[in-house]
């Protein structure tokens, strides 16, 4: 059964590898706002559009004191290629074990053409500087989503 997080809850901690042979923890970001978005797979059409939209607003997120982090089950080397191909300038976390995906409740049963499988439900969490979830966007539709998250980050 998947976890159901709500605004006001403490954000689940994480310690994951990133692109560029990095490692990041939630604890290391204490005191900062985070736009944490989960996406299914590097270099697919919707995921690429979403990443490009977040990247295009990166300086506005910085002005709002908010770090952008993308998370998928792809390996760090795939993230490196994805970032280089599209000029992305924010961190991508790799959750190959699916532990963080499960902790945030975004690793769910999906269905396509009658076939059931497990996958990432496109979801974004805005985490406040206090480490609590300020807002959640479930089953995200990509166009305009990054701007919506930015507006919420500015208001936080």
Give the structure's gist in a few sentences:
The chain contains five helices and nine strands, in the order E-E-E-H-H-E-H-E-H-E-E-E-E-H. A hairpin with a 5-residue loop joins strand 1 (15-17) and strand 2 (23-25). Helix content is 29%, strand content 29%.
Describe this structure in words.
The structure is a single chain. With 156 residues, this protein is of the alpha/beta class. The chain has one domain: Glutaredoxin (3-Layer(aba) Sandwich), CATH 3.40.30. It is built from five helices and nine strands; from the N terminus they run βββααβαβαββββα. The protein has a five-stranded mixed β-sheet. A two-stranded antiparallel ribbon has the order 1-2. The mean pLDDT is 94.
Q: Assign an overall shape.
A: globular
User: In the residues, how many domains can be counted?
Assistant: 1
How is the biggest beta sheet arranged?
5 strands, mixed
Considering the protein shown, what is the CATH homologous superfamily? Glutaredoxin
Instruction: Please give the count of helices.
Output: 5
Evaluate the radius of gyration. Answer: 14 Å
Q: What is the CATH C-level name? A: Alpha Beta
Helicity level, as a percent range? 25-40%
Task: Identify the CATH architecture.
Answer: 3-Layer(aba) Sandwich
Structural class: alpha/beta
Regions with pLDDT < 50 over 5+ consecutive residues? none
Following the backbone from N to C, one meets helices and strands in this order, namely EEEHHEHEHEEEEH
First-residue to last-residue Cα separation: 31 Å
Which strand order does the major sheet show?
Answer: 5-4-3-8-9
Mean pLDDT: 94
**CATH fold naming:** Glutaredoxin
Overall number of strands: 9
- Measured by DSSP, the beta-strand proportion falls in 25-35%
């Amino acid at each position: 059964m998947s976890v159901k997080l709500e605004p006001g809850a403490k954000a689940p901690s994480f310690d994951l590898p990133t692109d560029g042979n990095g490692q990041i923890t939630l604890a290391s970001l204490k005191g900062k706002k985070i736009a944490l978005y989960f996406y299914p797979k590097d270099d697919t059409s919707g995921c690429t559009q979403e990443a490009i939209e977040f990247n295009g607003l990166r300086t506005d997120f910085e002005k709002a004191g908010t770090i952008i982090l993308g998370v998928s089950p792809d390996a760090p080397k795939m993230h490196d290629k994805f970032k280089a191909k599209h000029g992305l300038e924010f961190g991508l976390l790799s959750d190959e074990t699916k532990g963080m995906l499960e902790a945030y409740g975004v690793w769910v049963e999906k269905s396509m053409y009658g076939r059931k499988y497990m996958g990432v439900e496109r979801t974004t969490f805005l985490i406040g500087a206090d480490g609590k979830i300020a807002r959640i966007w479930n089953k995200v539709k990509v166009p305009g989503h990054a701007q919506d998250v930015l507006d919420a980050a500015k208001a936080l």
